[in-house]
Amino acid sequence: MTVSRPVQEFFSIGDVCQLTDLKPHVLRYWESQFRFLNPAKNRSGNRVYQRREIELILLVKHLLYTEKYTIEGARQRIEEYRRTGSLRSEARLALQHETVENLRAELKHILDILDGKVPVEHSGQ
Q: What is the mean pLDDT of residues 52-72?
């Protein structure tokens, strides 16, 4: 019998920063610019993000950093996705793009180590 790990439903801003490779101040700024980025807050007042919001954050990141849209242009593009019913699929594509880019960067780092361009990091364990 295989025991499955529970799926994490909520993420702190620190978790989201790690997952998206963004700084907290960037996330907070985007929340002020994109009305759909409005994470709930827990009893302590800390932001709590859901998976859907992380996908939207990655879509915004893709539009701004990869497609080179302005904030206003990204807002309009996302509204267009919403009107046409393609928002969820576009957000998933952004997640896939981010995953591929991360894998590409890690593979490049491994190749650099193998080519002797980067010293191998040793952990103290």
A: 95
